[in-house]
Amino acid sequence: MSGVEDRTRAALDAVTRQVDSAPPLPLPPPPERAAARRRWHAAPPWRRWAPWLVPAAAAAAVIAVAVSLVIVKDVSAGQPASPAPAGVQNTAPRYYVAIPGDMANAPVGAPDAIVGDTFTGQLLATVPAPAGWTFISVTAAADDRAFVVGAAYDPQPPAPVATRWYLIRLTPGSTPFATVRELPVSLPAATRAGAVGLSPDGTELAMIDHSAAAPVALRLYAVATGAPLHVWSSSAAEMRKSGEPEGYLSWLSDGRQLAFGTFGPALRVSLRLLPVDDPGHDLLADSQPVWFTTAPDTVNPTGERPFSCGGSFAPSALVTGNGTTVVCGASAIFRSQAGFDPDDACPAVPPWNAEGVLEYSAATGKLTRTLYRGESGCTPSDGPVELLWTSASGDAAIGYVDFGGLTATMRPFIRFGLITAGKFTPLPAPPTITTDPANTAW
User: Fold this and answer.
1) What are the backbone dihedrals phi and psi of residue 4, each rounded to the nearest 5 degrees, phi first?
2) Is the peptide bond before 315 cis (omega within 30 degrees of 0)?
3) Is the pTM of this model over 0.90?
4) What is the CA 166 to chain-centroid distance, rounded?
5) In the CATH scheme, what is the code of domain 1-80+92-294?
6) Which end of the chain has fewer CB atoms at under 10 Å, N or C?
7) How far apart are CA 326 and CA 104, in angstroms?
8) What is the C-alpha separation between 127 and 426, in angstroms, rounded?
9) Are 253 and 200 in contact (CB under 8 A)?
10) What is the per-residue pLDDT across 240-276, written as a single tens digit (0 to 9) for each?
11) CA 197 from chain center: how many Å?
12) Domain limits of the chain?
């Protein structure tokens, strides 16, 4: 990193700490509505160039940031955060950023992002999107202080297109608690961003983009300048053989490797690792598969099924930060649903299924341990446990099971919490868990 960039970043942080409020973010003229409404196929379920900023340009960038801050409402201003439940304080990140919604509005995002306390459920700040824009995605750095949200203009179903990105920075104990600024990152024309991942130190942003006329590409940008750093791509024909990249993209803790997932034929899910320092440009040839599974097309609800990461839907699987383990949501059916009432999500019958988390070696692909398994007579409405975060070692995960919603009269409920070795600790669910995907980042 250059001295100029160091000074620029320091100045940006100073502005962030000192500005309490600012006028609404000035926006350029709205883009063509036809472009904003471009439809694209929803993702399956589940190099440097550019001169470094010269000092004068760096100063101008700092001034621009000062006037481009969006007003953030600190809901908890002056209120000390409630203590976390005993035994979980240092197990998972304290803060999250979420884009509220439900199954009805998930395809079009929300006008606000919220900052919440993982352990208490306390709402700490509300970040409004600029007028005419909607937040549709969120990713987090490893420091639990930096988050990037993607925004779409005049979003339209079935899936909106993010064309702007904003950095939300948290400063606990300060006023304001949260600040936000637009990032100078821009995708090539006629592409749409799928999965997005912020590097552990918050300095680089990775995106997987798709286009009807161009190969699938994974792009890397500098957060401070928006400069493109590297791009890897593969043709549509090549991707079909191994599976299209889906909504999962994350960084390993070393900040030099990216994990991404593909979803292919026969519901085969594959996770791959890509070294970001690799000089190559082929997304498949330069990445290595570390884990895959095949989920059955159908599941007989009265038949037995072993405890596994398969199921009627693609499993939720994450690569741990140390790169050694794959953590996945698992389920099982071990007896008939005798006495099951189709209008009761959790009838008073003996347990007939199980939900939990399994861990696999990223080196061998073999099962290494069961992190957690719980049994119930409840009916999950969408496959196994959905995982949203995991620790670098895989010793802890945040996830949920969505029970119910199978019939009009069934009362759905969410079982959300922190999963550790042999233990499930319930936590207040963020107001995003019923969306698909669940737009919450830690």
Assistant:
1) -65, -40
2) no
3) no
4) 15
5) 2.130.10
6) N
7) 31
8) 27
9) yes
10) 666 667 678 999 999 999 999 887 766 678 899 999 9
11) 7
12) 1-80+92-294, 297-442
